[in-house]
Amino acid sequence: xxxxxxxxxxxxxxxxxxxxxxxxxxxxxxxxxxxxxxxxxxxxxxxxxxxxxxxxxxxxxxxxxxxxxxxxxxxxxxxxxxxxxxxxxxxxxxxxxxxxxxxxxxxxxxxxxxxxxxxxxxxxxxxxxxxxxxxxxxxxxxxxxxxxxxxxxxxxxxxxxxxxxxxxxxxxxxxxxxxxxxxxxxxxxxxxxxxxxxxxxxxxxxxxxxxxxxxxxxxxxxxxxxxxxxxxxxxxxxxxxxxxxxxxxxxxxxxxxxxxxxxxxxxxxxxxxxxxxxxxxxxxxxxxxxxxxxxxxxxxxxxxxxxxxxxxxxxxxxxxxxxxxxxxxxxxxxxxxxxxxxxxxxxxxxxxxxxxxxxxxxxxxxxxxxxxxxxxxxxxxxxxxxxxxxxxxxxxxxxxxxxxxxxxxxxxxxxxxxxxxxxxxxxxxxxxxxxxxxxxxxxxxxxxxxxxxxxxxxxxxxxxxxxxxxxxxxxxxxxxxxxxxxxxxxxxxxxxxxxxxxxxxxxxxxxxxxxxxxxxxxxxxxxxxxxxxxxxxxxxxxxxxxxxxxxxxxxxxxxxxxxxxxxxxxxxxxxxxxxxxxxxxxxxxxxxxxxxxxxxxxxxxxxxxxxxxxxxxxxxxxxxxxxxxxxxxxxxxxxxxxxxxxxxxxxxxxxxxxxxxxxxxxxxxxxxxxxxxxxxxxxxxxxxxxxxxxxxxxxxxxxxxxxxxxxxxxxxxxxx
Length: 720
Ligand SMILES: [Zn+2]
What we know:
There is one protein chain. The chain is 22% helix and 27% strand. The protein is an alpha+beta fold and 720 residues long. Among the domains are: 31-54 and 615-712, Immunoglobulin-like (Sandwich); 108-147 and 157-233 and 254-280, no CATH class. It has an eight-stranded mixed beta sheet. α6 crosses α7 and α6 packs across α9. The radius of gyration is 29 Å and the shape is globular. The structure holds zinc ion. Zinc ion binds at residues 1-2, 467, 471, 490, 493.
């Protein structure tokens, strides 16, 4: 989802050091001075004992930042030591046939689903667990009971903040999911009531017989729930009243099989709403019966256009799919007009189908304007339909940017991760600020009632659209476990989002991605390691799960590995884990294996701890080369620049050197220089000139948390 708070932006410096510009401008023109480092054996003598940054000297154990990571699981035949699905990798498959209807008087969904559960696990299952996320809205949910108390004053709280504390609900205690019946379907279609047990947001269903490995079970579940206007999960599933009527964004709405995997067994943790989801893949066939005047968008491909669209709309859709700019299917002037709907007044059933998706969501409203266009990765290639639906309240804005932002997502993520494999991608406007489901995203940016908006709202719509559509890759295709590892979902997505924004406009005001934007958070005492389960992160989820991992991966790509090595390994990760369920160690192992670097120090520093990078300049000395080596063949001078590591994190070193004549160079040293001494490193080199200035990390690309100790200038000689 899109996190409502973005505190990582506060206080970061947007100024660029003048040195960075100097280096950039001069880099091409200046012949680099000879810089020949001497071997480490010539450096200052080591003090007694290893110089480890985070050493507890009472323990005589290996505490090097570079040591092996013992946190990783032992490789097995399901997940190998190179981070690859093993020869016996398995995952469950769960198919759904759902029939649901929307009652716009009671604001209620009623549904019945046929679940086919394919047990591909090596073990037999005596019961199945389902997720009932709507139960988070119940007053006795764990989320409600563990909620923080109200502040002393509610003045100034946004509607979203009020929703988050459950205020304003019209429906009182009736929220939550009502399970009407659970039946098993046996041989010959014989139905039997199945005992079930609801534990908060989870439901265990007893099977009549143990479900053997390789076998499938069928169940039918009838349920109902009221769609909340305000509540604990209305950042995902909500109704919203706009000028032309109600809009419904329907998600996490049907009893969904919990994940059973080789890592955690059943993922039947309570749903608190911060850790969003972890789902099984399956095929969906869903029919939604809605009021006659509604337009529906959903996960999947529309199966019955002849029943639900007018001839005009079908003709416009065909035209839109051949167009490279959005075409209106329902024009603003046509909203809620009878001619936009088939004849009659009875409720209409919209039928969608989707293959190999983790979930299914939809939106329904009589208020929708609808535009669409086609997208192909190459001319004549496979068609991908791009759709946006939004009320007139969202104009002007959505009509200009939404569908184009979906296209940008297809382009950038297609290049950097893998090509979008699904046939449809839609973006829906409503009260949900930003949320993702397979092939459909919800996004909330809306102009003021008079139609005006700040320029920042345009960027917000584009960013949130890219983000939510981008979630198709993380976690809908690379199907990670966000109930535990938010960074693999929000963080990897925010990382690629940054490049999509740069593709949209090189001057895009990106919030997440640049290393300097996480400096404030790296100093935050409330920070927890990225390897902390989503629902155990008490505060600052936005920088923790979004901004820090995004900047971390940008640093890994651009500063540690270099883009060709990173991109090769990242593409390998995407290719081998698409439509599978990678775990953190699978990612770490794939990157290190594919890029050819030992990265234990990086994973440990950035993911498993809250260590920060604080490099400081120590001594800067210059000696006449003649005195040292007897000639000036390598330059007139020999310089020694000492860099100290004051934080807990080793990182590569970048030293911006300005010479006496104003020319400069950027010295880049790998993190390996800290291998034998993590606290101090002295870099020595010859040059033909004296030094005018030395700056550490001059381009602010390594998230150095204290820049006050990063600059050196020669002390002016005191003239007597
Ligand atoms: Zn997100």
